[in-house]
Amino acid sequence: MFEVVIGLEVHTQLNTKTKIFCSCPTSFGDEPNTNVCPVCLALPGALPVLNIEAVKKAIAFGTAINATVHKKSIFNRKNYFYPDLPKGYQISQFEIPIVEGGEIVIDFEDGSKKTIGVTRAHLEEDAGKNTHQGSVSHVDLNRAGTPLLEIVSEPDMRSADEAIRYLKKLHAIVRYLDISDANMQEGSFRCDVNISIRPKGDKKLYTRAEIKNLNSFRFIQKAIEYEIERQSSAWEDGIYEQEVVQETRLFDTAKGITKSMRSKEDSAEYRYFPDPDLLPVIIPDDMMEECKKIPELPDAKKIRLIKEFGLKEYDAAVITNTVEMARFFEDMIERGANAKLSTVWLSVELPGRFHDGMTLLTSPVNSEKLASLVKRIQDSTISGKAAKDVLDYLMKNDVNVDEAIDKLGLKQVSDDGAIQEIIDKIIAANSDKVEEYKNGKDKLFGFFVGQVMKASRGKANPAKVNELLKKQLG
Amino acid sequence: MQINDKLLTKLEKLSAVQIDSNKREEAIEELNKIVGFVEILNELDLSQEKATFTTLKGGTPFREDNPHVNDEIIDTILKHAPKSENRYFVVPKIIE
Amino acid sequence: MITLKEAMKLHKSDIAHLRDDLKKEIEKKKEIGAYVEQLTNKNISEYMDGIPIAIKDNIQVNGWEVTSGSSILQGYIAPYNATVINNLLHSGFAPFGRTNMDEFAMGSSTENSFYGVTKNPHDYSRVPGGSSGGSAAAVAAGIAIAALGSDTGGSIRQPASFCGCVGMKPTYGKVSRYGLGAYSSSLDQIGPITQNVEDAAILYDVIAGHDFHDSTSANIAHKKVSDFLSPDRKMTIAVIENYLQEANDDVREKMLDGIKALESAGHKIIYKNFINTKYDIATYYIIATAEASANLSRYDGVRYGNRAQSGNLKDMYLNSRSYGFGEEVKRRILLGTFVLSSGYYDAYYIKAQKARHLIKHQYEEIFKEADLIFAPVAPTPAFEFGSKKDPLEMYLSDAYTISLNLAGLPGISIPLGKNIKGLPIGGQLIAKAYGEQELFDGALSLERELKGEIG
Predict the structure, then answer these.
(1) Fewest 10 Å CB contacts: which of A440, C206, C411, C426?
(2) Structure confidence by residue, pLDDT tens digits, B19-39
(3) Chain C residues with CB inside 8 Å of B22's CB?
């Protein structure tokens, strides 16, 4: 009955060393008001000077989403009062942003794709932090002036699922480019959702609500689902005009609902005008050329991994999901690990053993170790099954792979003679079953394999066992 | 364009500045006089003119991404701040 | 009073004496109220011990209370030096005393200061001009060797004219604005106020130059003008005829003396006309108030300065700013907010920026035919306190100085003489962008010629 129209605004903090308009270090979690100066404190007489790295990162992003990077763009003042905004205005971009008109492609499991338009991306400064303490607020300006790239999508998404896919893709791109830490919990990747509904088939855009304060993909999903329900119910109950107004809503994580944040009359009037303390941003040709050389992006990497290593689409997608995993994988390959084996061990076995917020970056088993482990499977030193035990051991003990294998005594037996000995014993002890097998009960082959493996305490090389048994039994 | 009491109230809100109630009429009168005066620009033919926001040519200079901190500056500001506590600036809360 | 040039030849010990003598003079002539310290009964602010230069109260000096003549900045201690102050220090000068000014540089008479008025040394019932009235009065009264002021619409040149000293505004971008409490970012410039033209050239050289802290600082190497002063250079000088006709009799009389002097000095005089000054004034008051309305938003009592105790945040902002700002400042903030607000932005702000282009172009046309422009500084000599109560009337008195800031050009006000009441009248020379050499050359020749005549 209804169609959902979703547009997303993402503010991503650029991971430059200094703030966008002053040389204060960018930071997270430092003592309050330690990374501040006359400029970001907005003292009388202070003036902004643009960080070149912020510009370069914006160019890289524009290139990655096939957008136009404007050679000339303008900074504007966005005027409003709030204690975390020291100047009483935010330096942002309005009519002429640095990046305009790009796209991000989202993929679905069935192989289909959808292109989501990106209207624009512009540079601006972050505000400080205002925390409430009883009857007062505490203002910390460490964050004030951190460079932000505000990325605005077209209202092209039609479901929470599409919205999440877009955000994950955008997140991956930003991480692949390494222009931002994009950590939602720390606030370096902030998503606002603009959502409205309309009767199916209707082309008009109806009233949209903006939902802020969403710091996880899960909450974004829930918030969207709640809003769809809220807005459709209002329409069906005939109270759409009253209930659905253009406003900002906050997501209450405890109750799982959105709540109205600002009253209707507080329509923001920002009085944008070009900032007279700055001149237009004009990108020199050589900088433009240099910054357009960006690293391989997730989609391209996925296609290449499928082509070069024969990975399945699904596996390639998982590996390239995050830049950390992609890098880990590529390092393993570089060290000679088999691609298909690496896929399993990297995307299933290793993460399956993480605990207490561990990630690939904090994992005690790094790409070098995991590659060594995989190579020991490849060269038949250990069986795949034994490798799992070795990995468990490596997660808790700081030794190299061979030391672990020795310690656990898991070296595989691949010696023909040794295996043959065991086979002979089993066959001798199971002559009746041998008879049955020779008379056609093919399923018993597995029994013999199992017995040999058991007798060897799992150490026999399964491939060898198969080979020799087949030779023997026929 | 005439500035009336309603518009003045809006401007006061946007600029966080309030005119004393007993000076309000006078303020509106003065503002209207000035606004009326500046409308004289309508007499000029500006159709061929480009809006010039600065008399300088070229683009904004770029700064290298090198961190720099001066502890004395922030210590002086915190010391003389109207209200500060544990290195925070303290302000009254917004009334919801 | 010793000139700047002479003071530069002094030994360190003599400079110390000079400073002490100056302090005594300042105390003696307290009633002028040129210095904030004179008006508040405090000791003259000092920083290091070089040749003393008086500093307008909107230029940051590390450790000084720097308040832009406002209540809202009471209690604010500047924790850094403006670039121009560092430049002074590197050349053996030192900031010495805060001079009084119209609050946030908004005014033409120094009647709008939180601290009270500064008197014109030539007639205590009259204004010294503004907004750098304190700086000009200090130099004119012999209680400063030289001073720094700031000029957004004439705030150096007009007080210099009213007080009978030299005041110069550089090409926009030649002197760093880092550390100057901003009024109108695209118009503000710091400049020297001195006893004579050569001192102004010397002081200009000290403060001028590229500064990477200021994105609007002209990125060209500074070529010293004071080393190359050529008063004998002959130039073509355009006199703005319609300005001359509109000025009052005293001003016109002195301007004619000035033209005669320039002719005697060997310059060629041509006559040109500018558009009606009303357009300049309208353009200025839209652009300057718009930029100011945003520049002054930082004064909110949150991090520094004067906070009005309040129960909630909204009241804190409203009360701090409404009590902390004077009438004129509030008026300009509201005006600036108006011209930027939706529905009016194109009709006022954009229109003014287009008019600015026209005004700039008008100057460029004249400079195709002339090296310098000669025009009156103000329509009248110094007026009496309280005589211009109507804000619009006050704005209209900026008629001749304003267009220069809009075009970003350099200008200098030189004393032409006094009227029968003994009130000084100045004339200004204007050069094209980055034409400070021509400007000072022409000014020096005029000064010499006039001094020769006057004796």
Answers:
(1) A440
(2) 999 999 999 999 999 999 999
(3) none
